[in-house]
Amino acid sequence: MLVPDDKDQSATAAKPVTLEYLLWRDAGMIRAQAELARSAVLVAQAAKTAKQRQGSLETALDAIDHIIALAMR
Fold it and tell me: What are the tens digits of pLDDT across the range 16-41?
């Protein structure tokens, strides 16, 4: 796999991918997944509260599904 050089973003100046870059990229993906998981927990708590207040669990679950689908794009 090749990535563009910092000085020249053209494909002709590509250099091999370093382990440091791969770790940085993977760490970013892990952070994003952790943030998504935290958001899902908060939405689930909100759904539970909505269920207790209004009795509409299906509506709350639909909202959770919608938020997760948007986040996964």
Answer: 888 898 888 899 888 888 888 888 88
CB contact at 8 A, 2 and 16: yes
**Two tokens at 9?**
């973003």
3-state SS string for 11-53: HHHEEECCHHHHHHHHHHHHHHHHHHHHHHHHHHHHHHHHHHH
User: In this predicted model, which residue has the larger pLDDT, 57 or 64?
Assistant: 64
Domain ranges for the chain, please list them.
Answer: 2-72
| Residue recorded with tokens 């959770």 | 64
